[in-house]
Structure formats: C-alpha cells, structure tokens
C-alpha cells in the first residue's frame, strides 16, 4: 500500500517564491503543498480548515506574524509540525519560537533539499510516542522526554540555537552520555558514530558541527549562564571548552539538577 503523502502549508510573504518552492518540494519528496499563505491570518484559516502535517512558517508575516501563529496553535489537537523558515537570526526570536513549539528553526537562504530534510525530521519528532526517546533505550526510572527538553533549554541558554546543526548533535550526544557515561571515555570511537547514525551523517561532520556550535556560543557568550554551568572548569587562557569537556560538563550539570542516577 502506498504511504500517505505529507500535506504541507507554506506561509511566506513572497507568494511567488512559495510557488517555486512548492514545485521543488513536490519533486523532492512524497508530499503535497496543499496551501500557500502570504500572511498570518490566512495561514491560521488554512491550518484550521485543512488537515496539514507540516507548516513551513516565516516569522515576518502581515496581520499576524509567525510568532503569533505559533502561539495561537500551541493547544490545537493534532497540531501540525511547525518548521520556521526565516531570515531572522536574533536569539530572542529563536527562543520564543521554540518556546511556542516550533519543531525546527531554519535560516534563509536554504536549499529546497535541506528544507525537505528539516521537514522530514520535524514529522519524525511529531509522530514519536511521547514516552520514548529518538534513538536510545530509556530507563523506566527516568522521564527521558523531560530530560531532552531540559537539555534543549540549557544549550539554548548557553547560546547554541536550533538554526545550528550542532545544536541537534549536541542534544543527542548529551542525552546519550546521561544514559551511558562510558561514552565519555570513547568520544571519537563511540559517541560521534552513534550521533552520526541517528542523523544519517558522518562522525567527522558531527565533530565539526559541535565544535562550530560551541565556538558560536562563546563568541556571543552569555557569561552568567556559562559561569553558572562551567565555573572554574574553564581555563581562561584556552577560552572555549573542547567538545568532550562541554558535553561532560553539561551532562553533569543536568545529572545533578534533574537527579538523574549515574549509569
């Protein structure tokens, strides 16, 4: 039996660009673009009127902006996955978008193929049973879904945002370490390959993306948060921590704050 095609809504002020993107997405994946909205009011009407799997949503929209659409749809039953696609890179906007339940935050310009990968990931997360993690076995004693939410909160507070690929690799790496601390003694041989397998990529790309995300955070440092989490463990002469030091310290911070047993 043929799989059900994804139903996508594009919400962007540039209606002409949306039509080009709709054709490209149809050619790339098993999907249909069932609506195009050039303002937030129309987007809300289409979301309410049609069964939609994914909304690709710009923040800059007339009448109701993308943040308002995210907020207004928060409590909808069977809410579509919400993928933000925008040119706005301000941390405050990213944080508010994620707080309102955006599945992903993608910066323009991006290729149609890359957007399709974000759409597929958002649908995967939306369809995931709430009691399970993505690629890891969970202990019955720990609510790993809650822990994953806390990981996202911490790394966003540090300054690593969802428009960076390293954000997702770090989230998974930290969760794996919390579930099995032996990963820390085998970062290159075990941890990077495990994260790479989860995202269908290469270990080297995982390592580089995590390093870039940490550099990004340190260049825009939230000194208060970094001092609270890392404190004296960071050598001021060397600057930012290594990937392994960052993962280990954030994991330990969460283990203590969330009362997660050592494993």
Task: State the order of secondary-structure elements, H for helix, E for strand.
Answer: EHEHEHEHEHHHHHHH
Mean pLDDT: 82
Which runs of at least 5 residues are low in confidence (pLDDT < 50)? Answer: 129-140
Distance between the termini: 43 Å
Please state roughly what percent of the residues sit in beta strands, choosing from under 5%, 5-15%, 15-25%, 25-35%, 35-45% or over 45%.
Answer: 5-15%
- Helical residue percent band: 40-55%
Helix and strand content put the structural class at: alpha/beta
Question: Based on CA inertia axes, which overall geometry fits?
Answer: elongated
Rg: 19 Å
Number of strands: 5
Largest sheet: 5 strands, parallel
How many distinct helices? 11
Strand order of the largest sheet: 2-1-3-4-5
Describe the 3D structure:
The chain is an alpha/beta fold and 263 residues long. 53% of the residues lie in helices and 10% in strands. Strands 2-1-3-4-5 form a 5-stranded parallel beta sheet, with helices on both faces. Helix 6 crosses helix 7, helix 7 crosses helix 11 and helix 8 crosses helix 9.
């Amino acid at each position: 039996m043929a799989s059900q095609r994804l139903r996508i809504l594009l919400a962007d002020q540039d209606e002409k660009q949306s039509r080009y993107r709709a054709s490209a997405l149809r050619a790339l994946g098993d999907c249909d673009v069932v609506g195009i909205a050039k303002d937030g009011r129309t987007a809300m009407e289409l979301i309410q009127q049609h069964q939609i799997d994914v909304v690709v949503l710009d923040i800059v929209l007339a009448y109701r902006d993308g943040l308002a659409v995210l907020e207004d749809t928060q409590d909808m039953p069977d809410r579509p996955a919400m993928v933000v696609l925008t040119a706005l890179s301000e941390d405050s906007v990213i944080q508010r978008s994620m707080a309102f339940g955006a599945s992903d935050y993608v910066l323009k310009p991006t290729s149609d193929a890359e957007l399709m990968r974000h759409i597929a990931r958002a649908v995967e997360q939306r369809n995931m049973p709430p009691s399970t993690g993505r690629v890891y076995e969970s202990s019955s004693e720990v609510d790993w879904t809650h822990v994953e939410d806390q990981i996202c909160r911490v790394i966003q507070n540090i300054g690593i945002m969802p428009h960076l690929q390293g954000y997702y690799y770090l989230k998974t790496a930290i969760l794996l370490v919390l579930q099995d601390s032996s990963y820390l003694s085998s970062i290159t041989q075990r941890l990077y390959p495990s994260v790479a397998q989860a995202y269908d990529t290469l270990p080297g790309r995982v390592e580089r993306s995590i390093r870039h995300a940490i550099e990004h955070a340190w260049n825009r440092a939230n000194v208060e948060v970094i001092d609270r989490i890392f404190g004296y463990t960071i050598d001021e002469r060397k600057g930012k921590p290594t990937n392994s030091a960052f993962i280990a310290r954030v994991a330990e911070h969460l283990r203590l704050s969330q009362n997660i047993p050592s494993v």
